Amino acid sequence: MSDTSSGNDPFSLWVSGSEPVRELQKYVESVTSKDSGCFIPEEDRIAVFDMDGTILSENNPGDIEWVMYLRRVLNDPSYNPSEEQKRMAEEMIEAIRTGVKKPGFTERKNNCNAKAFSGMTVSEYRQYVERFLSGPSGTFEGAARKNLFYLPMVQIIEYLKSKGFTVFVCSATESLNVRTTLSGAVDIPPNQIIGTDYLLVASRQGEKDGLDYILGKDEELVYTDKVLMVASGLNKVVKLIQSIGKRPVLAFGNGTGDYSMLTFVSENPEYRSMSFMLLADDSVRDYGNPERTIPLRKHAEEMGWPVISVKNDFRTIYGDKIKPRYKDISGFFSEVLDGRFAG
């Protein structure tokens, strides 16, 4: 992970005079000053970030979990995918290409993803994610997948922590995957990372209910193909309440799946609060699609959420040495479809 610090400037990776930075600083100054009338005690200074597309590239070419699924189904010689999983891979590629998800996409995607890793122990799954993240990016030169964090957003996390905020991440990606992805890249403890939950069972549990089963000394926990709750949409709000027990005062998201979380935070009745919408609108340094961000910007403006533009607000995205491999993302998909996808 690149060092995001630069002397005394906590926003050195942002364009000078960035409006969302100015608004964030103004907000933080008001809620950390006891004389402002908007003071928030440290125990209630809670900020929450989405992961994919908010602090981590969503152009890998898609969510990191999506790309790992594509590798598992299309190019993992140790795995024999079902026809359903192959169809899901095709549907996933089309969703990344067009930005349009067919009805029921999220449910089908999570069910197929759970099946793709069902039977792995927790340690095996973690190792699989670690190996995948360490591999070279298929879409960016000079980067492993684990290097594709939005460095300006990492600066925001570090800035908020220096001001007494506790930072959480709430992602639709599976929980252990999120924790493994963030480990060593963003300094957030695992217990402050929230994700989608798949059912785990003991290795010899069989069909017995967990209430009636006693774990053996030499047993491990194993992933099943059952999805318990996907941390997207309204479920993000539910997960935040279940995991934190109180309402955050700051939120950062990047898509429709974050709308409920951003609303939940910005409408906090107890404290002055803010939500920010990040737009992946840089099609030169990144694979952003400005046209797709138009409805997101419109909704954010209607809700009064400040907008962060990757194109206009980030001085650098991933660091100056990391550059797009293709002019546009279609070059990557030609490799996928003709069998040259190396994962």
Q: How would you describe this structure to a colleague?
A:
With 343 residues, this protein is of the alpha/beta class. It has helices at residues 19-31, 64-75, 83-98, 105-117, 122-134, 151-162, 175-182, 234-244, 259-266, 290-303, 310-313, 330-337; strands spanning 46-49, 140-141, 166-174, 193-202, 221-229, 250-253, 274-279, 307-309, 323-324. The chain has a seven-stranded mixed sheet, sandwiched between helices. Strands 2-9 form a two-stranded antiparallel sheet. The radius of gyration is 20 Å and the shape is globular. Residues 337-343 have low confidence and may be disordered.
The CATH architecture can be given as: 3-Layer(aba) Sandwich
Sheet having the most strands: 7 strands, mixed
CATH-defined fold name: Rossmann fold
- The CATH H-level superfamily is HAD superfamily/HAD-like
The helical percent reads 25-40%
Strand/helix succession = HEHHHHEHEHEEHEHEHEHEH
SS strand fraction: 5-15%
Which structural class best describes the helix and strand composition? alpha/beta
Amino- and carboxy-terminal Cα gap? 21 Å
Low-pLDDT segments: 337-343
| Strand order, largest beta sheet | 5-4-3-1-6-7-8
Regarding CATH, which class? Alpha Beta
> What does the radius of gyration come to?
20 Å
Number of helices: 12
Overall shape: it is globular
